[in-house]
Design goal:
Largest sheet of chain A: 7 strands, mixed
Shape of chain A: globular
Shape of chain B: elongated
Number of helices of chain B: 14
Distance between the termini of chain A: 46 Å
Strand order of the largest sheet of chain B: 1-2
Helix content of chain A: 25-40%
Number of strands of chain B: 4
Strand content of chain B: under 5%
Low-confidence stretches of chain A: 1-27
Radius of gyration of chain A: 25 Å
Distance between the termini of chain B: 38 Å
Number of helices of chain A: 16
Structural class of chain A: alpha+beta
Strand content of chain A: 15-25%
Mean pLDDT of chain A: 92
Radius of gyration of chain B: 25 Å
Helix content of chain B: 55-70%
Number of strands of chain A: 21
Largest interface: A-B, 35 and 30 residues
Structural class of chain B: mainly alpha
Oligomer: heterodimer
Mean pLDDT of chain B: 88
Chain lengths: 544, 347
């Protein structure tokens, strides 16, 4: 009897808990439905997953176009985890890291009712090359991709698909440890075969995620509704994927961030995607932090690069001196609280960042002593920065520091639209040193080391290794780690590599720029997810 | 009874320049604004004195993490939220009189004075370039007429067809990076001669066209025919006969162009294609302050007010000068003096 009563009690408790959880599962205490109104400072460059290469576009399409893999819908480090999306499970890696095998989930449909097929993956990757997507280079290691890029005909032989079984096999020309991350990028999102090879921003293709873009007014606004196929098919097939709370999302472009803040304060808009400008940042933070405002930490690095090929920065002592001379506390103040100081290459949130270290605590006396020892013959330096505040002020601060070290410094402030083109072109004269911000493509340390510090990345145009450091030993380490899938061992090795590079001091890393989530009083701030790669997750917005 | 100056005696006793000066002397408003302009010039010329002996800092020296003593109280130049200190007047012995300029913590007063030197220098230099080029082109086109006039006038039309601001922005963007190479002369992208040449150049048609019209009219006058009859060559006629008759117009245009060019410089610098950092002008100061418009509006208002006062003073003085030098003013003066207007001299 006692046993039976206990069983009933357990059953009763389980049922009650299950019902409670089910209720929470739909609303988590918030209100389901409603229309979320958001604002952007500018219209994303593209609302086409194959073309968008900026966080604005990625935020807009994170819950719309799904790749085979994606990044977990979670805050902080948990959001850096690659998880299956349209694939049933994580890829099986074989053939010495050169073959990735995945299986498509069965029964998934696009928002227009078309079934998703394994061959759509091949056509979507081919479309990247056909429309010269800025992200196509992530997939150039697929066997035959480079040839396809040239001819744009005949398919990519390294991608084998079977629409019946949903099997997708990808052969790489060489092992690529970051390929799992790259399969989770929006560039690899599946679109129906036959999707036109042109920019579809004004008429976005059908979606696989919980929301579909229903209306676009290019340059001004766009809207989402729930994907009709999500509730019918896809949600049950992808139970781990959030379905979203609001029924409709309207996004409009409001250029002025004061107006955006004002609209949120008056509950005319529910959320602003744009980071709040430094002028308003502290005012908004002081008033709304914890209730409507939250500081977020995307993975990025702000730094001053030094051209190691040219005097005076071809002397490691000079570079170390500059590292000692730059005071990250001053730069934190220049960035008005939106910068978290960091004096190493891997920023917080990036695997391999731990443990944090600082080889060059601010010490102007030591910096001057190192300059005296180095006694550089060339003391004329040009400092480059862009004209966006406070980066221009960071450049002016850096100029002052170099002046104090005894250099004669010219500051060149370039329009932000052209800045990277100009400093990435080796024919630009006087590329001595300058400012740079670098945002992750995906949370893998290789994404920082390869473009910023590998000798392979030195290029005549679009150069990303602005320090032009080309150390064969360190290059080999980057290459070796780049072939290995990321694990604890690799993370430790990347941490070590970080120190080895900072001993060479090709740059002065000075911090990570934080952004913010600012919502009106009707939104559950605590429920809003900020993915470090994709930004705010639209499925997480929920009215109180 | 105090004797009124006898206009007839005045006219009989002085040339046109003296006449103009006497007319200008009566224009108290114009003279008042001239005095204001002189004060502004004196203010900006005193920049090194203020910087070295009062503020003890330079225009580019940063003080981000420093504290200053304001009436016995230690205050941060830039607080932890990145807000710069506001005006402390003489509370810190003249340091940060108008506060700090932004998150770099540079002395706003020192930058205002040095920035004014750059703004005025650009305004005056570019106006000189504009007037010089416009005068040459107007003399050539108006005197020679024919294909010379056609070539010059159509070129002016082409330049005029571009909105002056867009043309200046385009040139500024291109030249700000690579600089300018004219034969052996190289100007780096950050040189203030780049905005001077751009502003001076794009304004030329606005002066050259009206001057050309005046030259076309003057070359038909009897004194030019007389000079030709005496065997004077084109150069002598242009310099010796036409130019003196254009001088009053040129002077008036010059003053008004200074004002316009200062405004253009401020606009270009605000847009980031005029004066390049670390050089400071009132335009760059407005651009810098604009980022802190909500929390520190004075950073925009102060340099903006300086531009307003300078442009206003030059414009009002220029208007007064035009009244004094313009022949129609002379006619009014003559009418006031009771001298009958000779037939056929109406302008």
């Amino acid at each position: 009897m006692k046993k039976r009563a206990l069983v009933l009690l357990v059953l009763g408790l389980t049922t009650t808990s299950a019902l409670g959880l089910a209720a929470c599962g739909s609303s988590s205490g918030g209100k389901e439905g409603g229309t979320l109104t958001g604002t952007y400072a500018s219209f994303p460059s593209y609302l086409d997953p194959a073309l968008s290469y900026e966080v604005e576009g990625w935020t807009a399409m994170y819950d719309t176009y799904l790749p085979l893999l994606t990044y977990a819908h979670a805050n902080g480090a948990a959001g850096s985890k690659v998880v299956p999306a349209l694939a049933e499970s994580m890829p099986k890696i074989s053939n010495g890291g050169k073959t990735y095998t995945l299986t498509l989930r069965k029964g998934v449909k696009y928002s227009d009712g078309t079934p998703v097929k394994a061959s759509d993956f091949a056509s979507s990757i081919e479309r990247l090359f056909k429309i010269s997507s800025p992200g196509s280079f992530f997939y150039e290691d697929i066997v035959g991709a480079e040839q396809f890029a040239k001819t744009k005909k005949g398919g990519i032989p390294g991608i084998k698909t079977d629409d019946k079984t949903g099997r997708i096999e990808i052969d790489l020309a060489s092992p690529r440890g970051t390929f799992t991350n790259e399969l989770g990028m929006l560039f690899a999102a599946l679109l129906p075969s036959g999707t036109p090879a042109k920019n579809l921003t004004a008429d976005p293709p059908p979606a696989t995620g919980p929301y579909v873009i229903s209306k676009v007014e290019p340059g001004r606004a766009w809207s989402y509704v729930r994907n009709p196929q999500w509730a019918k098919n896809n949600s049950a097939i992808m139970p781990d994927f959030p379905s979203g709370h609001v029924d409709k999302i309207d996004i409009k472009v409001v250029n002025n961030d004061s107006t955006q803040v004002n609209e949120i304060e008056r509950n005319k808009a529910d959320w602003m995607q744009t980071p709040i400008s430094s002028d308003l940042y502290n005012k908004v933070k002081d008033k709304y932090e914890g209730t409507q405002f939250r500081v977020e930490n995307p993975i990025n690095l702000y730094l001053f690069w030094m051209n190691t090929e040219k005097a005076p920065f071809n002397d490691v002592k000079v570079r170390q001196a500059v590292n000692y001379a730059v005071n990250t506390a001053a730069l934190e103040r220049i960035y008005a609280g939106s910068l978290a100081a960091n004096h190493q290459i891997l920023p917080e949130g990036m695997p391999g960042h731990e443990p944090p270290f600082n080889l060059y605590p601010h010490n102007m006396a030591k910096a001057k002593q190192l300059i005296e020892e180095a006694n550089p013959s060339d003391r004329n330096i040009t400092v480059w920065t862009d004209n966006e505040s406070p980066n221009d002020e960071a450049g002016a601060y850096y100029q002052g520091v170099l002046n104090e070290l005894g250099f004669s410094v010219k500051l060149k402030t370039i329009n932000a639209d052209n800045y990277y083109t100009i400093i990435g072109n080796e024919s630009t004269p006087d590329l001595d040193t300058g400012w740079l911000s670098f945002y992750e493509d995906y949370p893998n340390p290789n994404d920082f080391f390869q473009p910023l510090l590998s000798g392979e990345s030195i290029a005549p145009t679009s150069n990303t290794n602005l320090s032009r450091i080309d150390d064969p030993k360190l290059n080999a380490k980057i290459a070796k780690l780049g072939e290995e899938p990321l694990g604890p061992q690799q993370e430790a090795e990347y941490a070590e590599l970080d120190k080895e590079f900072m001993e060479q001091a090709p740059m002065v890393p000075y911090g990570t720029n934080t952004v913010s989530t600012f919502v009106d009083s009707e939104i559950e701030l605590d429920k809003v997810i900020f993915n470090p790669t994709f930004g705010q997750d639209l499925t997480s917005f929920e009215f109180k | 009874m105090a004797s009124e100056p006898n206009p007839e005696a005045t006219l009989a006793g002085g040339g046109p320049w003296l006449l103009a000066w006497r007319q200008l002397r009566r224009d108290r408003v114009a003279l008042g604004f001239l005095a204001l302009f002189v004060l502004i010039v004196a203010f900006v010329l005193a920049a090194p004195l203020w910087a070295d002996d009062v503020a003890h800092t330079g225009p580019d020296k940063t003080h981000t993490l420093e504290k200053i003593d304001v009436n016995g109280e230690q205050r941060e130049v830039v607080n932890r939220e990145g807000k710069p200190i506001g005006p402390v007047w003489l509370g810190a012995g003249g340091k940060f009189f108008l506060g700090a300029d932004g998150r770099l913590g540079r002395d706003e007063m020192v930058r205002l004075m040095y920035g004014g030197r750059v703004s005025l220098f650009i305004g005056i230099s570019s106006a000189l370039i504009t007037v010089f080029l416009a005068t040459i082109l107007a003399l050539l086109a108006g005197y020679y007429r024919g294909w010379t006039d056609t070539a010059i006038s159509r070129t002016m039309d082409v330049v005029w067809a571009f909105p002056v601001m867009l043309l200046a922005i385009a040139l500024g963007l291109v030249l700000a990076v690579g600089g300018l190479q004219i034969g052996p002369l190289h100007l780096s992208g950050g040189s203030i001669w780049i905005p001077i040449l751009i502003i001076g150049g794009v304004s030329v048609p606005y002066i050259a066209r009206p001057l050309r019209g005046q030259v076309l009219s003057l070359r038909e006058k009897e004194f030019v025919e007389a000079a030709v009859a005496q065997g004077a060559g084109p150069l002598r006629i242009m310099i010796g006969e036409l130019l003196p008759n254009l001088s009053s117009t040129i002077i008036v245009f010059f003053t008004l162009t200074i004002a316009n060019n200062m405004l253009l410089e401020a606009a270009l610098s605000f847009l980031g294609v005029g004066v390049q950092p670390p050089e400071t002008s009132w335009g760059t100061m407005i651009a810098g302050g604009f980022d802190l418009l909500t929390s520190s509006p004075l950073l925009t208002i102060i340099p903006g007010t300086m531009i307003l006062l300078t442009v206003l003073s030059v414009n009002v003085f220029g208007d007064g000068l035009r009244d004094a030098l313009d022949p129609s003013s002379k006619l009014r003066l003559e009418a006031h003096a009771g001298i009958s207007e000779p037939e056929g001299t109406a302008v």
